[in-house]
């Protein structure tokens, strides 16, 4: 019985940290899978894992609205658009040059590492005080009212922009399919 009480006391203080590290252990390899996997459909599934892990991190931060928005908009919506766009492309037309690391790829990697270090050092130098204010019960209601009143125009503009991008991608893919059929 003593061991159970010790485990219970330990978990009460460290459960949030353990959940954070578990989500990070899932998110980071999935993100690397999105970048480095040569099979694009599998890369799309890795993307779902990344977005799901980020949704879990929002839940740990007690931002339930952001967690559900992350899950519905990104993990389902954007990934579905990516998979549909992939189905419209011709995978046989792609060249396989996975064994060659190009000069541009190496330059991109160096720039990405330098950019990450710049952001890390900038964030590390700041102090981030934890607020002791209680969260309002009506947070989701306040966000919904703001989205439908004050921020309605930018919200609708973003949705029209995403729709135009999807239609453009479909038209480009259809044009490429017609060229492939003519040849």
Q: Write down the secondary-structure element order.
A: HHHHHH
Note the total helix count.
6
Calculate the mean pLDDT score and round it: 80
Distance between the termini: 76 Å
Spans of at least 5 consecutive residues with low confidence: none
Structural class, judged by helices and strands? mainly alpha
Helix proportion range: over 70%
Descriptive report:
It is a single chain. This protein has 183 residues and is an all-alpha fold. Among the domains are: 1-71, no CATH class; 139-183. Helix content is 79%, strand content 0%. It has six helices and no strands. It has helices spanning 2-36, 40-60, 64-88, 103-124, 139-148, 152-182. The radius of gyration is 22 Å and the shape is extended. The chain starts with a helix and ends with a helix.
Question: What features would you highlight for this structure?
Answer:
mainly alpha; extended; 183 residues
Please outline the helices and strands.
Elements: H1 2-36, H2 40-60, H3 64-88, H4 103-124, H5 139-148, H6 152-182
Helix pairs in contact: 1-2, 2-3
Summary of the model, kept short:
The chain is 79% helix and 0% strand. With 183 residues, the chain is an all-alpha fold. It is extended.
